[in-house]
């Protein structure tokens, strides 16, 4: 509160000062000081008000108090300065300079304009007080600040002149010593000429330092030289000084120095700089600076390197700290080839140097070592130079060059990066960084660096390097048969190399790279080989594709390169390959005669021979020599004889033996030749050798050979059990490998119909139906005569499907056997079914079954059609005919078992479903698909036996079985649903169904813990597992199945959260899902269930309103296909005491389960209905309707299958009506002592409880002891505790 009052008082004081009500301001300030006595603004305002009220002492006191509180704040110092400026008191005037000096310090970093004003005021005060030395210091500070701001030279000169006028007018008032001090101080220390000179060399000799302090006083005697004259005409002053002291060499040196600094015209005038410097050297031969500037003159003006070297050497001998002279002397010595002298000088300097000094010597010796190839010594010397000056970017570049020559690429990268950081505009360091990355094979990173360089300027080495990187990336893609991306990169490479050629057409390497880039296009398919060639290069339009003109353009590039470098063997080799590629163009792209092809091959041969003559040790040239030689001989043979390609291949071994003998690396892989030989002799290793040609590298001919052998092996169904088939096809994953290799082959060679047929066949075996259709369509487009294609039966089906009914009719016309016709009719029926023509499909399948040789596939389709449409008669007849085909093998076993089980389920014979699946498993125990089918059928149609079906290869189904029979860790620590689901997740972490099963297992464990009275240990996992299922489902499962799985998992998660009492989290989860899908009825139902649970807990026994029950009923009706929803609604009605409504809900769920043919759903409805009706019976409600309902429900349940729960309910009904009856004891003892295999332990526990009550009422101690012993053996602790209470009571 006091802070607000202080601010209000200060605001009022400020307003009063603005309105010139100074007394009111004093009052407000004093009020503020009462609340906060150390308030800086309050004391400043008091100072301002007291100053205006002409109370200087009070104002000074207030300002001083404010300065004590905040000495670095401007307001108080400014107010104090204003007070002292207005007052005439002597003590105030004496304090004013100190205040100005403090203001200068404060304004120097914030407001330079005010700083300059205060400096001038301070200079005026010192001038009035005749303190000229302080005046000079203040002006010097002003000039230094201006220089720091890079002020104009004209402005600086004006300031110097003003200071000169101010001091020279009063110079006579000083004593002689002060005059000399002031003049020397002004003229030398602050003269721009001297400062410019000192910027070149920071080290001075002792002689020069004496000259600085002593001879300038001689240079400025008061009686001869006026300061104004010095600044207006320095040459005149120096000439006068030299005339008065003709034996003083320093004056002539200063005069020569001045002429040298005046510019190029003055330097070239021998009568000025050169003459005066020579005279100074004669008068004072020990002044090193004279010889340094003489060296500058001889090197830059006279171009006399010898004299310049001598002058620099003399200057360095006179002053060993003169680094400029020493460096120039060494540079000239190295330039003239006198390395010994240069190294001797450098060695002497380095030996005397302390660590971190003599940078110039270290750097020059390092460059010498770099030049002669002594790279380790160069690195050491350049590192020593950098210790002296770590910010020298040139030295960092030299060090990077040394590392690069030493092949230390990582260190070189770091050095060039440091140089680039110090000098971002350095193109060289940036280029070397990119070049090193290119050398290391990091072509993408190098290309990015090159692009940054050429964004600044068209740097030819960068353009060349970028073209090389893009070309290397393109070749890498082409090796992997990714031709589209390679063409894009080649296009970019051509554009950048063309820019380089425009800048430097005299470089042969650029023309060669341009030719290489264009030649690379010849590898890809003609329809992909489309690049844009710059018009100035091509001589025709901008757009050209892979044709004859394009190839001609390529050898123009090589021809231009050969004109620049005619003795380059690699250029002749590339030109020969270009001629060879012209001869190998597809026929559709050639418009030349046969003789022209021979001429092109001859040219290629001559070019390669020329390359061998220039470099006979290159094996690639010898290899290439065999290719055009073989091609030319083959062309002659083709011209006279019509022979097959195998004959040409065999002839190649005879026509080029000498070439391949000398070549250590042949152009085709050795495995390919071995495979050809093995194929000719009929070896079993043929397929394995062809496979090697695809694994080592994608070999064009080898790929086709391997695909042919894979397809041939697959078509031969007689060798499926052989060791050769298992190794070549199954173990080596031949179908997938051949399909991938053949896909690459057809992308590049798109004119081979045989390859497309084989690709379609392989896609068909891999269940890639769409890809198979595309392959067959490409084949048909290439070769319209499809009769030969119809000889391969598996390809007939997909071919006809892709071309429609017309193609099937054509296929039916050329079919020669009954079996082929059956396959075609079956395929046509499938097409009609796909189009929705059910009657036509059924007619075609009937027609197929009436053939003499019906195929199993047609009968299978007919049976499946009957099952899908609910026609059990048709399905039964078709299945009977199918079973007459004989014993099934392979996948047909599972298909027949599935059809039989589906037919039994359709007929309502549920117990036979499990028996049929078990019979198939016993007949084929090694078939994992049958085990998986059995594990899916058992929990649905026979859950009592679910736990015995533990599958080693179907963990997920085993876990579902264990969940169906309630197997949890409380019953079996090692074999339970949780353990099984965990193993399933570990083996298949990408399967969302496994994660969903794990969520269900966690819920089962939590429920079991709650029933046993222990604390659940797996709470809080619902949302995490739900997120995992959602993530895995998006990538691993088809969309409809994924949605269904996510819905089930959501329901499971909400149920788990609700049972754990986390109702808020469950409601939030449902709301989150509804925000994405607002109209999802299942999620709305879940939300209503959670809200209802919350109402039931909060109402504490109060009945729910009718409106709420109506909303719940509406939510259930919206999910009309959910049996569980009706169960939940019935349970809500039961908790509200509305038993009749609950019975109606259960009957509705039973009707729905019957419509959906859900065996487990019907069983659950009947048991829940029986338990509901049992409650009034146990409560002794009068009437027989509830008893009849219990008997009706349990009887129907037992008709569906064995049900221990139904038997228990019947026993409890007898217990409630006839507790002491013998029938009651018989029913309970049947459940306790004679349980069937698979009875839940919970049923036995409940039966023991009521049997103990029955025996206790009958007072049958002997039977009670027997029951207790049996309970001890079963571990039933609750019964033992109950027995103890009964006996003690």
Global mean pLDDT: 75
Q: Which percent range describes the beta-strand content?
A: under 5%
Helix content, binned percent:
over 70%
Using the alpha-carbon principal axes, give the shape.
Answer: flat
The counted number of beta strands is: 2
How would a textbook summarize the main sheet? 2 strands, antiparallel
Round the Cα radius of gyration to an integer and report it.
Answer: 52 Å
Query: Structural class of the helix and strand makeup?
Result: mainly alpha
Number of helices: 70
Distance between the termini: 76 Å
Strand order of the largest sheet: 1-2
Low-pLDDT ranges: 175-232, 540-548, 588-592, 628-668, 784-803, 947-953
What does this protein structure show overall?
Helix 43 (753-765) runs antiparallel to helix 44. The chain is built from 70 helices and two strands. It is mainly alpha-helical and 1289 residues long. InterPro entries: Ski3/TTC37, TPR-like_helical_dom_sf, TPR_rpt. It comes from Hucho hucho (huchen). TPR repeats lie at residues 40-73, 359-392, 393-426. This is SKI3 subunit of superkiller complex.
Supply database-style keywords.
two-stranded antiparallel sheet, mainly alpha, 76% helix, 2 strands, 70 helices, 1289 residues, 0% strand
What's this, in brief?
This protein is 76% helix and 0% strand. The protein is an all-alpha fold and 1289 residues long.
């Amino acid at each position: 509160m006091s802070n607000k009052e202080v601010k209000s008082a200060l605001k009022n004081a400020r307003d009063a000062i603005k309105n010139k009500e100074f007394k009111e301001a004093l009052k407000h300030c004093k009020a503020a000081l009462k609340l906060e006595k150390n308030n800086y603004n309050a004391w400043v305002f008091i100072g301002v008000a007291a100053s205006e009220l002409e109370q200087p002492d009070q104002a000074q006191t207030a300002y001083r108090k404010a300065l004590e509180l905040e000495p670095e704040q401007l307001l108080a110092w400014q107010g104090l300065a204003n007070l002292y400026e207005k007052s005439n008191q002597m003590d105030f005037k004496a304090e004013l300079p100190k205040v100005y000096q403090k203001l200068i310090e404060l304004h120097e970093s914030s407001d330079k304009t005010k700083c300059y004003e205060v400096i001038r005021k301070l200079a005026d005060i010192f001038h009035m007080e005749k303190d000229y030395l302080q005046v000079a210091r203040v002006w010097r500070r002003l000039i230094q600040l201006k220089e720091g701001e890079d002020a104009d030279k004209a402005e600086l000169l004006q300031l110097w002149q003003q200071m000169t006028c101010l001091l020279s007018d009063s110079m006579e008032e000083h004593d002689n010593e002060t005059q000399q001090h002031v003049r020397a101080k002004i003229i030398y220390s602050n003269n721009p000429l001297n400062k410019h000179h000192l910027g070149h060399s920071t080290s001075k000799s002792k002689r020069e330092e004496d000259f600085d302090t002593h001879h300038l006083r001689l240079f400025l005697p008061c009686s001869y030289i006026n300061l104004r004259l010095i600044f207006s005409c320095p040459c005149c002053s120096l000439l006068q000084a030299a005339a008065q002291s003709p034996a003083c060499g320093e004056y002539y040196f200063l005069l020569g120095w001045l002429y040298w600094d005046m510019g190029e015209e003055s330097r070239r005038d021998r009568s000025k700089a050169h003459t005066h410097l020579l005279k100074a050297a004669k008068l004072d031969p020990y002044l090193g600076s004279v010889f340094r500037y003489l060296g500058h003159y001889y090197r830059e003006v006279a171009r006399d390197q010898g004299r310049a070297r001598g002058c620099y050497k003399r200057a360095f001998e006179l002053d060993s700290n003169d680094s400029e002279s020493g460096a120039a002397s060494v540079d000239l010595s190295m330039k003239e080839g006198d390395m010994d002298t240069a190294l001797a000088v450098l060695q002497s300097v380095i030996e005397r140097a302390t660590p971190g000094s003599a940078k110039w010597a270290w750097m020059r010796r390092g460059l010498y070592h770099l030049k002669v190839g002594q790279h380790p010594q160069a690195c050491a010397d350049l590192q020593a130079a950098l210790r002296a000056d770590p910010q020298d970017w040139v030295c960092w570049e030299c060090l990077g060059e040394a590392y690069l020559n030493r092949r230390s690429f990582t260190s070189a990268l770091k050095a060039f990066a440091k140089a680039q950081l110090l000098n971002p505009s350095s193109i060289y360091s940036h280029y070397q960084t990119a070049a090193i990355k290119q050398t290391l094979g990091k072509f993408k990173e190098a290309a990015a660096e090159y692009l940054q360089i050429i964004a600044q300027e068209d740097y030819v080495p960068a353009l060349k390097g970028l073209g090389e990187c893009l070309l290397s990336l393109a070749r890498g893609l082409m090796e992997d048969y990714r031709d589209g991306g390679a063409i894009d990169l080649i296009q970019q490479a051509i554009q950048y190399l063309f820019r380089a050629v425009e800048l430097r057409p005299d470089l042969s390497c650029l023309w060669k790279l341009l030719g290489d880039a264009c030649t690379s296009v010849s590898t890809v398919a003609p329809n992909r080989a489309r690049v844009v060639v710059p018009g100035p290069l091509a001589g025709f339009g901008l757009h050209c594709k892979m044709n004859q003109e394009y190839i001609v353009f390529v050898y123009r590039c090589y021809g231009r390169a050969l004109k620049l470098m005619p003795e380059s063997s690699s250029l002749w080799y590339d030109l020969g390959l270009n001629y060879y590629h012209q001869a190998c163009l597809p026929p559709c792209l050639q418009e030349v005669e046969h003789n022209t092809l021979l001429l092109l091959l001859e040219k290629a041969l001559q070019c390669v021979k020329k390359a061998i003559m220039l470099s006979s040790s290159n094996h690639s040239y010898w290899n290439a020599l065999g290719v055009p030689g073989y091609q030319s001989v083959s062309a002659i043979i083709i011209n006279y004889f019509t022979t097959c390609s195998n004959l040409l291949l065999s002839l190649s071994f005879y026509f080029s033996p000498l070439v391949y003998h000398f070549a250590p690396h042949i152009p085709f892989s050795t495995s390919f030749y071995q495979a050809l030989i093995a194929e000719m002799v009929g070896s079993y290793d043929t397929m394995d050798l062809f496979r090697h040609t695809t694994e080592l590298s994608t070999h064009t001919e080898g790929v086709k050979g391997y695909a042919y052998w894979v397809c041939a092996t697959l078509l031969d169904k007689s060798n499926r059990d052989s060791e050769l088939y298992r190794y070549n096809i199954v173990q080596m994953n031949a179908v997938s490998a051949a399909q991938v290799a053949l896909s690459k082959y057809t992308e590049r060679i798109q004119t081979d119909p045989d390859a497309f047929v084989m690709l379609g066949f392989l896609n068909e075996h891999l269940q890639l139906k769409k890809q198979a259709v595309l392959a067959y369509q490409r084949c048909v487009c290439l070769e319209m005569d499809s009769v030969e294609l119809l000889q391969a039966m598996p390809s007939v089906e997909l071919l006809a499907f892709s071309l429609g009914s017309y193609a099937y009719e054509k296929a039916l016309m050329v079919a020669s056997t009954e079996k082929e016709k059956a396959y075609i009719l079956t395929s046509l029926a499938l097409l009609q079914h796909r189009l929705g023509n059910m009657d036509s499909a059924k007619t075609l399948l009937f027609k197929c079954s009436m053939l003499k040789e019906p195929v199993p596939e047609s009968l299978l389709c007919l049976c499946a059609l009957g099952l899908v449409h609910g026609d059990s008669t048709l399905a039964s007849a078709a299945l009977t005919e199918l079973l007459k085909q004989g014993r099934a093998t392979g996948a047909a076993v599972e298909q027949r078992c599935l059809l039989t089980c589906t037919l039994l389920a359709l007929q309502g014979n549920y117990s036979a479903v499990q028996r049929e699946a078990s019979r198939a498993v016993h007949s084929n125990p090694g078939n994992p698909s049958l085990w998986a089918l059995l594990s899916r059928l058992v929990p649905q149609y026979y859950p009592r036996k679910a736990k015995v079906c533990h599958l080693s290869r179907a963990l997920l189904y085993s876990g579902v079985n264990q969940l169906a029979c309630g197997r949890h860790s409380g019953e079996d620590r090692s074999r339970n649903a949780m353990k099984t689901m965990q193993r399933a997740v570990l083996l298949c972490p990408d399967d969302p169904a496994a994660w969903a099963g794990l969520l269900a297992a966690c819920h089962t464990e939590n429920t079991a813990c709650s029933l046993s009275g222990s604390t659940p240990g797996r709470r809080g996992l619902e949302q995490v597992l739900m997120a995992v299922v959602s993530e895995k489902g998006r990538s691993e499962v088809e969309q409809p199945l994924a949605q269904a799985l996510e819905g089930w998992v959501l329901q499971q998660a909400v149920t788990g959260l609700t049972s754990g009492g986390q109702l808020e989290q469950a409601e939030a989860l449902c709301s989150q899902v509804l925000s994405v899908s607002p109209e999802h009825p299942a999620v709305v139902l879940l939300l209503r269930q959670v809200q209802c649970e919350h109402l039931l807990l909060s109402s504490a026994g109060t009945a729910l309103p009718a409106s709420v029950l109506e909303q719940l009923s509406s939510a259930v009706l919206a999910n009309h296909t959910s049996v569980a929803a009706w169960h939940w609604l019935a349970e809500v009605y039961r908790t509200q005491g509305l038993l009749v409504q609950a019975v109606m809900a259960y009957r509705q769920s039973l009707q729905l389960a019957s419509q959906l043919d859900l065996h487990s759903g019907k069983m659950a409805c009947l048991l829940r209905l029986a338990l509901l009706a049992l409650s009034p019976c146990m409560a002794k409600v009068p009437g027989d309707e509830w008893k009849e309902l219990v008997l009706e429900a349990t009887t129907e349940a037992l008709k569906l299958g064995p049900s221990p729960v139904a038997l228990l309910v019947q026993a409890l009904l007898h217990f409630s009506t006839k507790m002491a009856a013998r029938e009651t004891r018989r029913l309970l003892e049947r459940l306790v002592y004679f349980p069937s295999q698979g009875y839940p332990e919970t049923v036995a526990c409940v039966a023991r409880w009521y049997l103990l009550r029955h025996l206790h009422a009958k007072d049958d101690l002997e039977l009670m002891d027997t029951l207790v012993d049996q309970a001890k053996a079963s571990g039933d602790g609750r019964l033992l505790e109950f027995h103890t209470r009964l006996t003690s009571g």
